[in-house]
Design goal:
Number of helices: 11
CATH topology: TIM Barrel
Strand order of the largest sheet: 1-2-3-4-5-6-7-8
CATH superfamily: Aldolase class I
Shape: globular
Structural class: alpha/beta
Number of strands: 8
Low-confidence stretches: none
Helix content: 40-55%
Distance between the termini: 9 Å
């Protein structure tokens, strides 16, 4: 069964919008765990516009109390980010090639050039016992370069699939993801996926893309909770994952 990791960024954005602690991030994480999710994801950005740096250790302690709940921290491997991740010791660190002021993640790693700094970051995280995943476009030629970095998994950046699905023409696009996933499996890399997956498009993606270990979903869960409630939305995702 594919695992569901709930990204709390948009919940934190709502909290920060009023300068209060409402909604409380720890309480929402506990509600997600009680609903049966398998992980908690955060993506602290340099401007701290949603998840703040001081949220990271709090959620690390919370997830550590649950043997079957993983903690995933996403971000660009700057020195500040690496210090934060190494102190929190999450189960997984997903490295994303974001610019500091980027609105949202919009591309995977290009591993054609000099990867010395990236490999140094992966080595440091791996030495601390942290699984490392690289945010990647569905390009087998790029996926083939991932083992040289020392990363353990890839996270397929799924926005192009979501756009194709919304346009009613996901067939060719989802095959690109399936090919990338098969390539990763052949290299003994685990496969995660995330970005713009939702209740409508997730089922087809998982049916056609083999071996997806984990999906990370946050924006859609927050929006869909207006229709189904938070727990009701999570229950719908877990049913998709089971079926």
């Amino acid at each position: 069964m594919t695992r569901l990791s709930v990204n709390l960024n948009k919940i934190a954005l709502l909290r920060n919008a009023r300068g209060t602690d409402y909604p409380n991030l720890e309480r929402m994480a506990r509600r997600a765990i009680a609903a049966g999710v398998h992980g908690i994801t955060v993506h602290p950005r340099p401007d701290q516009r949603h998840v703040r740096f001081d949220d990271v250790p709090m959620l690390a302690s919370l997830c550590a109390a649950y043997a079957d709940v993983e903690y995933n921290i996403e971000g660009n491997p700057s020195d500040e980010f690496l210090d934060l991740a190494l102190a929190a010791r999450p189960d997984q660190c997903t490295l994303v090639p974001d610019d500091p002021g980027q609105l949202t993640s919009d591309h995977g790693w290009n591993l054609d050039g000099d990867t010395t700094a990236l490999r140094r970051a992966i080595d440091a995280l791996s030495a601390a016992g942290i699984r490392v995943s690289l945010f990647m476009d569905p390009d087998p030629a790029q996926v083939e370069r991932v083992p040289d970095t020392g990363a353990h998994r890839i996270e397929l950046y799924t926005e192009s699939y979501a756009r194709a699905f919304a346009a009613g023409d996901a067939g060719g696009e989802v095959e690109r993801f399936a090919a990338a996933a098969r390539c990763a499996a052949g290299l003994s890399l685990g496969v995660n996926a995330g970005h713009d997956l939702n209740l409508f498009n997730l089922g087809e993606f998982l049916q056609r893309v083999p071996g997806v270990i984990e999906v990370s979903i946050g924006h859609a869960i927050t929006v869909e909770s207006f229709d189904h409630g938070f727990e009701g939305t999570l229950a719908r995702y877990l049913e998709i994952l089971r079926g």
